[in-house]
Amino acid sequence: MKILVIGGAGYVGSHTVRQLMSAGHEVWVYDNLSRGHRQCVPPGRLIEGELADRARLISVFRDYEIDAVIHFAAFALVNESVNHPAIYYQNNVIATLELLEAMRAAGVWRIVFSSTTATYGQPDIVPIVETTLQQPINPYGFTKLVIEHALTDYAHAYGFGCAALRYFNASGASADGSIGEDHDPETHLIPIVLQVALGQRDAISVYGTDYPTPDGTCIRDYIHVDDLGSAHLLALQMLKPSLNLQLNLGTGHGHSVHEVIQACRRVTGHPIPEVLAPRRAGDPAELVADSSLAQRTLGWKPKYVKIDDIVQTAWNWHQKHPQGYRS
Ligand code: UDP
Prior knowledge:
It is built from 10 helices and 14 strands. By secondary structure, it is α/β, with parallel strands linked by helices. Helix 1 packs across helix 7 (225-238) and helix 2 (54-63) crosses helix 4 (85-106).
């Protein structure tokens, strides 16, 4: 297939692009580079453009004879979404609706969409299944849920074939250490802890130790970015007109913030000092996936299950690229 990967210069997007190309697809990356990196896009594959630019997207779909879209381009920070909801609604909702209309105008009907565990809010029961009530507790989760609903409606009314993949915590880096996670500013737990191990920060701040979890810190399900990539490839191959999938992507194993820091200590051999800090706005206590539906539907299985193995790939990347893509 000829695939337009929107946001393919970002973290999950860039890893997925590699897998799509290895599988023999013709891949183009459409990105405005506002948060992505030119360096992680394969040579000659970048089309610079705005998600909200419907006319441009229509011409790209026609000129490149695109068969399918994978849509990664979104703002994805819970805390930022609480403080700056406007940019989340503008980009994640309004600009994405422009994309859907561009697809409709150009007759492109296949889309795999980056959704998120944040659409569930704080469920009473974990692990989380796809039928768990979606009640987001932050603007980021709401914006993603709006688009899930739009996709359902587009599948029903216009015959779109859609897969909304609800990621849990994307983490790790490519096995060869050539591409990885690089956000500015970095807000995610594992890269920040590894920056402490690299001597770039003095300590890791643990955001909240009074959550209703065994050690009082938040529990998350860390899923390797290459396992997310393989799920996108499988989902894309499954899409049929009017098919509308929503699938959780996680390992099914939860790790507390303290446990992740311990894993980083084991992998790096660095003592990694920690300091206690107040809770971060919008953080639910525990998010762990039941991914059995994705496993059954896609024939997918995460290759990385142990947190130490995931951290090891991230550590390889950070050691080789201590300043990220600027290294
Ligand atoms: N976290 C932390 N210190 C940090 C960054 C994150 O304690 O410097 C916690 C955060 O509160 C959350 C977990 O680590 O409970 C994972 O956060 P991250 O930002 O990596 O992913 P999120 O779950 O927000 O998507």
